[in-house]
């Protein structure tokens, strides 16, 4: 058992799994469970083993089980009846999501006055009253009246020393920079442009129209482009695919269309100019050629790949669209409704809570494994003094 535990992960292959399973069968009691956990961790970290498992799963995917094949014909016939019922369930589920979309449209109208007021505060079109600005933090509740007064005076003194800004400067840029999914799209040359972003709105399709939503990015007049609104529309489908009705799992985004950005000359951040030297084959003379090539930019978001009528895309376009759909959905579902919490970072902390808990659980398991190793008569600490290279990288 010790030989298996201390074997380098890089040397393990699918054949080793069978040896591991044989040894596990000989173990009993609590010792068996602890060592099984160790082996599971080792195997799940080994890319060769994971690849072998995936290959087996891929082989099983879509193939009928032996049990189903062994059923009598009359039972198979009844199972087919159940499948037909399941298809009808999928169609009812599609209707459910259509009504959910109608509810979203209804409540979007109720949210909008609040979002409009948020925009007015951000852009300094409206100055909130003292009552509207009243907000008790956990820290303030613990302070005495005397300490609160002192903190208030210090805050006022700082405000006097600072320049009095209008609204909430760089509100949306800060939101984007605080969210990994969006900050990964941002380039340094995008930031001066996004400082002019004043609001993001979500518009739903009208009743009776195909299901869709539009993201509207509202900009103040700026030196970069003449548009006041940049938009992107996502078309959705909420009905089972006739060829694969059991795969239906709610509305899915089918395609998206951006808009044309009317860039000011020399200000297009989605393009860059490069210079190349070219040597003439015959004469040997050298000339410098200037070329304009695409540039990484957040604003490429508004020119997604077009989906052909046959729906077939190359791998790169497919990956870009998959990421695009995820971003569009995230902006609609999370960013617009909870913008202030992403501005302050509170929403990000909430998103990270689940990961912290998983980390704590992992730490606990590691602790248990260390204790088990100490009680293992075959355990040799010298062999674990230097972890395998694969583990060190992680």
Tell me what you see in this structure.
The protein has 16 helices and six strands. The chain is of the alpha+beta class and 394 residues long. Strand 5 (271-279) and strand 6 form a beta hairpin. The protein has helices at residues 2-5, 14-26, 29-45, 47-60, 66-70, 73-122, 130-133, 138-142, 145-161, 171-178, 180-183, 191-194, 315-335, 339-344, 346-375, 389-393; strands at residues 197-204, 212-219, 229-237, 252-257, 271-279, 286-294.
Relative strand content: 5-15%
Largest sheet: 4 strands, antiparallel
The quaternary organization reads as: single chain
Structural class: alpha+beta
Which consecutive residue ranges, at least 5 long each, have pLDDT under 50? 1-12, 14-28, 354-362, 365-375, 381-394
Roughly how many Å apart are the termini? 25 Å
In round numbers, the mean pLDDT is 77
Number of H- or I-type helical stretches:
16
How do the helices and strands line up, and which of them pair or pack?
Blueprint: H1 2-5, H2 14-26, H3 29-45, H4 47-60, H5 66-70, H6 73-122, H7 130-133, H8 138-142, H9 145-161, H10 171-178, H11 180-183, H12 191-194, E1 197-204, E2 212-219, E3 229-237, E4 252-257, E5 271-279, E6 286-294, H13 315-335, H14 339-344, H15 346-375, H16 389-393
Helix pairs in contact: 2-3
């Amino acid at each position: 058992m010790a030989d298996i535990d201390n074997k380098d992960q890089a040397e393990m292959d699918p054949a080793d799994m069978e040896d591991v399973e044989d040894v596990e069968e000989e173990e009993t009691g609590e010792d068996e469970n602890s060592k099984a956990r160790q082996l599971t961790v080792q195997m799940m970290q080994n890319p060769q083993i994971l690849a072998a498992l995936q290959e087996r799963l891929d082989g099983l995917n879509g193939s009928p089980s032996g049990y189903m094949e062994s059923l009598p014909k009359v039972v198979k016939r009844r199972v087919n009846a159940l499948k037909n019922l399941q298809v009808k369930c999928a169609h009812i589920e599609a209707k459910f999501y259509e009504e959910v979309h109608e509810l979203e449209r209804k409540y979007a109208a109720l949210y909008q006055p609040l979002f409009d007021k948020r925009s007015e505060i951000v852009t300094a079109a409206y100055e909130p009253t003292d009552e509207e600005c009243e907000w008790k933090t956990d820290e303030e509740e613990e302070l005495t009246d005397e300490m609160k007064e002192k903190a208030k005076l210090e805050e006022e003194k700082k405000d006097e020393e600072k320049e009095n800004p209008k609204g909430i400067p760089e509100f949306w840029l800060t939101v984007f920079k605080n969210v990994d999914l969006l900050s990964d799209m941002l380039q340094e040359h995008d930031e001066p442009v996004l400082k002019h972003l004043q609001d993001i709105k979500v518009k739903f399709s009208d009743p009776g129209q195909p299901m869709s939503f539009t993201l509207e990015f509202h900009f103040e007049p700026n030196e970069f482009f003449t548009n006041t609104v940049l938009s992107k529309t996502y078309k959705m489908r909420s009905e089972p695919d006739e060829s694969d009705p059991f795969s239906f799992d709610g509305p899915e985004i089918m395609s998206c269309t951006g808009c044309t950005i009317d860039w000011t000359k020399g200000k297009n951040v989605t393009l860059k100019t490069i210079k190349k030297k070219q040597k003439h084959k015959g004469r040997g003379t050298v000339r410098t050629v200037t070329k304009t090539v695409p540039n990484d930019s957040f604003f490429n978001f508004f020119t997604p790949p077009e989906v052909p009528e046959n729906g077939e895309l190359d791998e790169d376009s497919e990956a870009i669209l998959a990421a695009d759909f995820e971003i569009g959905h995230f902006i609609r579902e999370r960013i617009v409704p909870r913008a202030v919490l992403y501005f302050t970072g509170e929403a990000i902390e909430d998103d990270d809570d689940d990961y912290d808990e998983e980390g704590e659980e992992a730490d606990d398991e590691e602790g248990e494994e260390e204790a088990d190793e100490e009680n293992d008569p075959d355990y040799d600490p010298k062999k674990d003094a230097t972890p395998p290279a694969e583990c060190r990288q992680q």
